[in-house]
## 1
Amino acid sequence: MNSTEMISVNRLFDEDGILAGDILSPSGVLLLPSGLDLATLRSARPDAIELLKKHGVDSVPVKKHEPVTAEEFQRLVSTLSPPVVRLNPLLSRVIAHQMGVVYANIGNREMRERGVRSLFSVGGTLSSEVRRIPQITLSLGEDAERKLDAAFHGVNVALLAGHIACRLFPLWPDFIRSVTIGGLFHDIGKAFILSSGYSSEILKMLRDDRITQTHPLLGEALLRDAGVRNSDVLSFVRSHHEVWDGSGYPDGLSGENIPVGARIIAVANVFHNVLADKGEGKKRSDQAISSVIASTLGKFDHFIVRALLASIGLYPPGSVVELSDGRSGVVLETRERNLVRPRILLMTGLGKQRELAPEIVDLRTDPVVSIRRAIDDFGTTPIPPLAASGEGRSSVLFRKYRLPAKLE
Ligand SMILES: [Fe+2]
Ligand SMILES: [Fe+2]
């Protein structure tokens, strides 16, 4: 178990660990968010001790890093077989081929069971790679012959979903693993329906019909049947077509009642569908991405959408960004074709400047300044100056998630 202890603010930079709770000022302003790594804090906010003292905070709860047990280490090593030093471009291809074989024989129960078991451990390898290489989504697999499209879709959704999980929950390796594996298997039920020997006309009809809506349930059942007992993976596959506003299926869950891993896979799924369109002559463009943002409003967890877009260098409204000149601000609006050069409300208002009118930078007309990076990753990246924030910022930067439900 992780142990939490109260650390004197004076010793904050002598310790290693993670903040075990939000640090608030007496008036309730969020000073530091729960989950922040002290090593990150040291480099990003050398003035953190002064800040806390100024607000009368003299000790903070810190969770110590848990040493890895021999058992966990063994489990980790066993998932890396054969050992992979860095994500080989061939890895996703090999996994997709393996998946293609499973899909081709999905009607054969024995082969399906064996295939699912081996893909499950391969999914573990993939998630280790996702955690180790932050740019992993840039090596998304493609298949020139399109024969393995469904399999590549699974691999790419696994990579994207694992990547998002890793950005949002860097301290939860088991969760990242379950999301990656869930991404890999999310459409296995669809593969089963498509392999069932129906004529192409019937399949075309089924595709638009509610019958295809059974594929998440079928997927869950197939995985259970193959011996998968990881309740997170099962629930992510079951719920990957639930929609934020409650209009999804199979259970009509809404908002945060949808398992967070399923919400992540849903976003990765829609995003990969946009990317995959390019094979049909439609270029992936800012416009396409922009339409995804528009269509995702109210349908997907916007925090997750933003995490994904920020990780590929796009900044929808509400993103907190750092500019190339060191200033930071909130993205106000983005227009089609201008997603990378939006208008930004600067975080000014420090002390005596507070009475000044808000300063807005329009990157479309200011070619010198550009966005250096987004800074709304929970717990993983430096945070901007806090005194400048005002009230609204905490909801942008530090929205909380409950742990994924353990169904047991
Ligand atoms: Fe699906
Ligand atoms: Fe899908």
Note: The chain has three domains: 4-63, 70-311, 320-397.
## 2
Amino acid sequence: MKTLVWFRGKDLRVSDHAPLTEALRGNAGGRDEGSVLPVFVLDPYFFAPEAARELPHRIQFLLDALAALAKNLGHLGSRLIVVAGKSTRVIPELAARWKVDRVVAHRWTEPFGRKRDTIIADRLRAAGSRLELFEGETLRPPGALRTKTGTPFAVYTPFSRAFRAATPLEAPLPAPKTLPAVPTDLGVTEVPIPTLEALGLTRNDQLQIGGERAARERLDHFRAERLRGYEDARDRMDLAGTSRLSADLKFGTISARTVWHAAESVAAAASDEALRTDRDKFTNELLWREFTHALLWERPELLESPFRKDFVGFPWRNDDDAWHAWTTGTTGYPIVDASARQLLAEGYVHNRARMISASFFTKHLLGDYRRAEAHYMKWLTDGDWAQNNAGWQWSAGCGADAQPYFRIFNPKTQGKKFDPEGVYVKRWVPELRSLDAKFIHAPYDAPALVLRAAGITLGRDYPLPIVVHEAARARFLETAAGHLKKKHVVLAR
Ligand SMILES: Cc1cc2nc3c(=O)[nH]c(=O)nc-3n(C[C@H](O)[C@H](O)[C@H](O)COP(=O)(O)OP(=O)(O)OC[C@H]3O[C@@H](n4cnc5c(N)ncnc54)[C@H](O)[C@@H]3O)c2cc1C
């Protein structure tokens, strides 16, 4: 049997790769040249220079990961065939030219990926071939878990309970030991993996390196050094207390199942309660990822509209000055500014900082979460449609199991609690480096003498706050209560 294995940006690995394993199995483990054809399509949807410029960090990580995948396939005796064009056209063309029996790939959760797959499946079928999709983006197929009444889960805790009560997850699949060779001349135009420069981008050395090996090293490091103590450290913005595996999970340079089992196996070997708690805390985060994918699978419209229908038509403000301050890290609230600058520089933001910053944008500034969601998608290396959308809707108060709209983070107290010495702020807002830690999260409260000692004049060296916390809070509460009251009257009719 001849199989085209279609790698497509969320599964850039050879370990625990069900389509690859299946392609070999269908080939009865044989080594016939050309029987397993690994392909990556450079679709202009992501790889046209104007598209790539809209996601510079993700493209860099993706190119690293593609290079690593090509190398790994090479080590196994195969090679990555890279072809440019729209995948809905290219894949059926390759399948026809090579007369493959089937195309195998991992299933995608997002509505546009599902639409693409339907088109390709139809085209392949019409040409006498077929598309076979495999699970592996998530731990369990999204949509597999339902409430007792058969409806999709809308609340995280019962979802996670159902997940843990279901059958244990199977072990990850090993990487193949060898792969059949790929003929040199396939009768198609192959292209090299593009360079960043060819896409109009320059390398950012502050980003994580992408690739299966780098992902495995991050996982090993987390398991050995950070899993113990995760519960306490995970919320601290000044500490490196989390796994930093989000981009790996996004691009599938490691599978969620591999990460899950790695965490489980550490604690299974240990008898101490604290480590078990750390493990459960960590795997709960993997289940948040699961939950967000299940939400988007069941409700594809979430990328366009809020989960809570009473938020439709919410009077978000479109204030360009506020937008500029929030995106450039010049709001006058140090923790918010640190997160904005970390995003642009590193393509990453600590989860606690994401929550504070998103709450500030949607509540203090009354900004439309969709605009900020797109900004995060542009700059995050781990930018993922399901997780990012859920994170923004959660923060805005309009998502599934969201933070209630009347819970508004106070940036000053959040900063004091989760960055007590201001280490995180000082790293990203160097103009405050000399400020006494007591005032690092609220320079606007610092006495003139303290500011002078730190060489800071507010409004010159660092901005005055663009809104006053109490007034902004009151404005949001009034706006939200007014809108929801009106909506409930309409929805109840
Ligand atoms: C406004 C907002 C936007 C977000 N956008 C994204 C995004 O685009 N991509 C993304 O991967 N995460 C997103 N998150 C979730 C979270 O912030 C990141 O997953 C986390 O910071 C990644 O760091 P880590 O890998 O060290 O996490 P760890 O604490 O080590 O967690 C392990 C893994 O669990 C998953 N995870 C952790 N927290 C969450 C969460 N709250 N929701 C869903 N999955 C989670 C991630 O895959 C993460 O890699 C967002 C959160 C918010 C509040």
Note: The pocket of flavin-adenine dinucleotide is lined by residues 234, 242-246, 249-250, 285-286, 288-289, 292, 351, 354-355, 358, 376, 380, 382-384, 387-388, 391-392, 395 (CB under 6 Å).
